[in-house]
Design goal:
By secondary structure, the protein is of the alpha/beta class. The chain has 5 helices and 14 strands. A hairpin with a 4-residue loop joins strand 13 and strand 14. It is globular and about 55 Å long. The relative contact order is 0.12.
Length: 300
Amino acid sequence: MRSKNFVSLIIIIVSFTSCSVLHKNLTNLNKTKWIHGTGDCKNNIDPPIQIVQLNYNTWVLRQNKCINYEAPFLFLFLGNKKALLMDTGATEDENKFPLYATVRKIIDNWEKKSGIKVSLVVAHTHAHSDHTAADGQFKNKENTTVAGLTVEEVTSFFKIENWPLKNSTIDLGDRILEIIPIPGHQDASVAVYDYETKILLSGDSFYPGRLYIHDWLSFKLSIERLTEFTTNHTISYLLGNHIEMTNKPGKDYPTGTTFQPFEHILPLKVRDLKELNKALIKIGDKPQYEVHNSFIIYPK
């Protein structure tokens, strides 16, 4: 009898430990196959939104390239009080791009499993339309807040003091995310660091593609600050908003491409960010176009 109880106890302990480890483990985004469009979009059968669950309370979404060639990535974080959706994609029409319904389903399922009710916060890595188009799907929805897009609105919403030199945090309920101002690509650009999964979102400021730079000096300072941040924090994944590079070093897909069968992987490395920072320092204060293996410095 004692032996059976001991075995049962071991099974319970192993099961609990396995669940705990599972919750900490992340999906391998270096091997994730994303929907990447088709040669003829009339025959495209991909879903409008690809959903990849990173861990038990984090999701990465990608928009179908045949709905919009930008095919931006979006990110959903759930805490014990709030859910945070970063960006709303490139298409307003909920019939073509049912983002609200998709996010609501994820949250509803999570609430049923966890027994926790959360409010939804919608914010943005920056204000460009390919990341804000579906904001209207969320406005005036129950228990949902949509953050503004200007520097003043972003600063107020996240309670950022001394923009862009100071960071701030948002607490989703036992889950802290750090908001890092990184203007340069766009005036209100921010990076987001999740202390739970250790992922760092870099928006359109850093991703495997063409790094369009609106304000060169601000961009240089932002990348310097972001690089410094990575030296003091563990980074599991460094994730931007698009994939424009092919899997051939230094080769990108043309703007407007709706079929990318040989894409670069989504995550970049901290060493890639350091490479960008060193390149910007070397270039100096005069904007310069420069091709690297996993990204292209592209002044506008």
